[in-house]
Structures are given as C-alpha cells and as structure tokens.
Design goal:
Layout (H helix, E strand, L loop, with lengths): L2 E5 L4 H12 L3 E6 L13 E4 L5 H10 L2 E6 L6 H6 L1 H21 L4 E7 L22 H20 L2 E7 L1 E3 L17 H9 L6 E4 L11 E2 L1 E3 H16 L5 E5 L5 E2 H12 L5 E4 L8 E2 L4 H6 L9 H14 L2
Parallel strand pairs: 1-2, 1-4, 2-3, 4-5, 5-6, 6-11, 7-10, 8-13, 9-14
Antiparallel strand pairs: 9-12
Length: 324
C-alpha cells in the first residue's frame, strides 16, 4: 500500500479523503495540529500530532516513511477572520506550505495534490466558471490559495515537482456510512447551520440578501458531496502517479442551488420547519458561483456520484443527529 502524507487529515474534507485513500489501496499518514481537526476523525492510517510549520517533523516523517505523494489540506479557512487577521492566514497557509515544499524537495518527494478554492476567482465574470477564468481573489484567504498555486507553478518549473491544484466549490454532506461528518467550531457553512435549526440548537437561520439577480433573490452556490470531493482527490493522485501533467481542476457539481432552495430541502428531508430572518447582503458575496467540471470529467475520469441536493442534505442530517 503506497504511503500518502495527508496534511490536515483530521479535518472535515481531509478525514473523508483518508477513508477513500484506504478504500482504494493507499495508506494515509496524517499530520494535524488538531486546531480545527478532531483526533476521533483519524480512523484510517497513521496519525502524527504536529504542525507543518515544524520542518523537523516533516523531514522526520519523510525520512522514516516511504512517502509516495502528499495531499495538502492543512489551512485556516474562515474568510471573515482572514480579513480581520490576515497575518494569521499568511503565516499559517503560505509560510507553512513553503516549509512543506522545502521538505518535499529535500527528501525527493515529487507529487502533491493541493486543496485550493474557487475563492481564487473572486467575483465571476462568467457562469459556469472554467479553469481559464481570471483569478482576482477579494479576501486574504483567497489570496493565500492563489499565492500557493503560483508557488506550485514556480516550484514545478525549477524542481521538477508534479502538482494538481483542486479548486473546491462548496463541500457538503457527510460520509454515507455515517462514520465521519462535518463538525466545525465555529460553523459558517449553510447546510449544517440550517440543520442546527432543525435540531433545535439554533432558533433561526439568517438569509443574507434577498435582492440578488437570481430566480428567488438569494445567492446560488454549487454544492459538492464531500465523498465525491474525496474520490476526485484519489483520481487526481492516480493521474499524477501515472504520468499526468501538472495543472488545475475545478471540483463542483456543475449546478447550483439557492439559499432558499437549501432551506426548503432541509425542511423536506427533516420534516421540520425552519424559521428564516431576512438580513442585508454581506460584502463580497457574488450572486452565483457554479463550477464547470468538464475538465475534471474529461482528464481525471471523475464525475459526482451524489449530485442531488436531497441526498447531500440527507447524509448530513444523519450525521448531525448522531452528534446532537
């Protein structure tokens, strides 16, 4: 079983990816500082407690394990916090990635899959968004992801590094078998927030903006099931290991749902009414974000297997009931 180092593998997406790695014949080795991850999420592979800012830890890991490739999730990812404390984001997201790449090169590790974001595009000019769309991130979080993408291109030219940057849209849902799921503190994602209302943990859900140029006036987003996202990482890894070229790929469903549609779907799945409070728009929220996933479909032979919003919400609901 080839060893794959997974940074941030105790987090939401990272832990689901570790399960899929194990299912598909890889051995994940997880490094996580557990600031936002959970030790109980590490059910597949080996766990090393620590921070990728610790280059000695990275060198020790690479020297003591025959690592085939790296999947790099570890990052801070709260957009609002990145605006109020950008230093935290540049230090953690960018500086720690520099350490990771330095250690990879020193120890002759050639392959890396990078967890990037659709936030590198900024406010879209065209929908659906293709990988060739201009990148103009509008917050420090998005800029850290953009900077790392540029670093990877430079390192690939200079050091023969092979990389894929995967630009996520809205990860959602939970493991269909109920072993792991989404549990952020603080929680900012729409689906778990609405499910908290259904569970009685919150009284209402705020809808930020009802006057957008969409069919019901609320923002539209592309939700991709976390298991589909995980399978895309394994497809990307196999692509690189089989001689594929470095590059970037969008990971989304290729379709979108509005905030009100998500709320109505939660009501349908849970059988519970969700009280809504309409609130003003938030700065920087584009009306519509939908991915074109044609490139990933064609080149990685990947396609979402759980594209329906009802099923995405259902898996999340089953998980949230377990952790109530």
């Amino acid at each position: 079983m080839p060893n794959v180092l997974v940074t941030g593998g105790a987090g939401y997406i990272g832990s689901h990816c570790c399960k899929e790695l194990s299912v598909q014949g890889f051995n994940p080795i997880i490094i996580d500082n557990l600031i936002y991850g959970y030790r109980e999420n590490v059910k597949w592979g080996e766990f090393l407690y620590g921070d990728i800012g610790d280059i000695d830890l990275l060198n020790k890991c690479f020297q003591e394990n025959e690592i085939t490739a790296v999947i790099h999730f570890a990052a801070f990812a709260y957009v609002g916090e990145s605006v109020t404390d950008p230093m935290k984001y540049y230090e953690n997201n960018v500086r720690s990635t520099i350490n990771l790449l330095q250690s990879m090169i020193k120890n002759n590790i050639q392959f890396i899959i990078f967890s990037s974001s659709c936030s590198t595009y900024g406010v879209p000019e065209n929908i659906p968004i293709e990988e060739t769309h201009s990148q103009n991130p509008i917050n420090p979080y998005g800029r850290t992801k953009y900077i790392i993408e540029q670093m990877l291109k430079d390192y690939a030219r200079a050091y023969d590094l092979k990389f894929l940057s995967l630009r996520y849209f809205n990860a959602a849902g939970a493991d269909p078998e109920g072993e792991i799921g989404e549990n952020h503190v603080p929680e900012t994602h729409l689906i778990p927030l609405v499910l908290d209302v259904a569970l009685g943990k919150r009284e209402t859900i705020h809808v930020f903006g009802t006057d957008y140029p969409t069919h019901d006036g609320t923002c539209i987003r592309d939700y991709i099931h976390v298991t589909d996202l995980s399978k895309a990482h394994i497809a990307a890894l196999k692509y690189l290991l089989n001689g594929g070229r470095s590059g970037v790929y969008n990971l989304g469903n290729g379709s979108g749902y509005s905030v009100l549609e998500v709320i109505k779907t939660v009501e349908k799945v849970t059988g519970r009414q969700i009280p809504v409070i309409n609130a003003p728009r938030r700065n920087g929220d584009p009306p519509i974000l939908i991915a074109s996933n044609k490139k990933a479909s064609k080149e990685l032979a990947w396609a979402p297997e759980i594209p329906e919003l009802d099923e995405i919400v259902r898996t999340a609901w089953e998980w949230h009931k377990k952790i109530k």
